[in-house]
Amino acid sequence: MNTLSIELTGKLGSLLSKQLLFPVSTSTVTRIALKQQLPEIIPPMVLGVDDWAFRKGVSDGTILIDMETSRPIELLKSREGADLKEWLTKYPDVKIVTRDRASSYSSAINEVCPDAIQIADRFHLLMNPSDALDRYFKSVSHEIRLLIKNKTEEITNMSANGKSGDQKADNDTESILVIPELKKINTDQRIDTFNKVKELQREGFGSKRISKDLRISRNTVRSYFIQEVLSPKISSRSTNFDAFTKHILIRLNTKGHKIKDIIDEILILGFNGGKTQAYFNINLIKSEYKINIPDFTELLQTPIRCVKPLSSRKLSKYIGVCLNDINDTDERIYMETLLDNIPEFRIVRKLVQIFETMLKRGCGNIKRWIDYIKRSKHKLSGLRTFANGLSLDIKAVEHGIRLPWSNGTVEGHVNRIKSIKRQMYGRASFELLRRKVILSQTG
Question: Which of 81, 205, 336, 432 gives 200 a disulfide partner, CB atoms 3.0 to 4.6 angstroms apart?
Fold first, then answer.
């Protein structure tokens, strides 16, 4: 029953005890867990230290791990250096301590165990630069925005697979001016109907059937039957549209034109037809001369050339990686543009890569790296602060780079504490949680 009370919650332990034919209540399972004695602490030679949240945002504790056995040996009620100092006073034979870069832990260890080797955790050493880079990129955001604004067209063209973004000038009318003479455009709206009637006539359809299918009068069909070529239309509805063809062509070759404005202009110049006729005839001109210049409506639908900026967090993520590893093409081009045009970014990139290489290979001159940042002519906001922080804890940082110990095991036990807390819906007392963490055989 002792094992059940530690490994299971009170309710689950009670349910299982009934299946095993020695039923106990939920509260009894909890009492059994609280009455169990903690094992005697064997003074560790290699100690892992990290903080954990008892009540997130309210109170924190400290977990101590024997790194040689990977087992938790104690939970402290706070993350204050005084509590760790008191515990270390009882077990001062610790030779190596792995920890994060919290100054409270560092001070306590220095006071009680001045000869102990302190190791700054490599995971935290890798994470700390991202915060420093985030502050750095925020400090140079104005310079980045200005560069991207000036390079927007170039970047968008590169994003479109290198296709040229050159377009005709806004007022390009040269193409129409080189036309030797204006074409005669048939503006008779009857021509399509006439051609269709003649086609059906050749296929043997009668006038009644054609009149019904095309929805025109039978007299019109009979009239078209006897004509080989459509006779000119002579009526009060005939217009002088041909006189304005050249003016219309020039206006249609202007990007962002409005057909409504063209019609208003030719009406002022003396066009004697209606607006519907003008719309129809202008569309005929566009088709005949193959005019593809975008009008005002098409310009509104054209995507605006813009470049989505990368956040300071993404810039921090990408600055040290190989650009070919960036899957998003637009983001890769964005980074290439920054590195090609801002020399300081190439320096930052090199610094980040050197720092990561030192941590991965377990060797390198971190002091020289720090000194370079301190002596740099560039401001390097954030990075300079990070370098100053490393210099204050330089011994632990050097040990973190060179020695094989890290806080990975401790972080795993912190995650296990979170799992146990969720299992008990966050309502476990400190003493109950302490026993479940230390006595459990499953972690």
Answer: 205
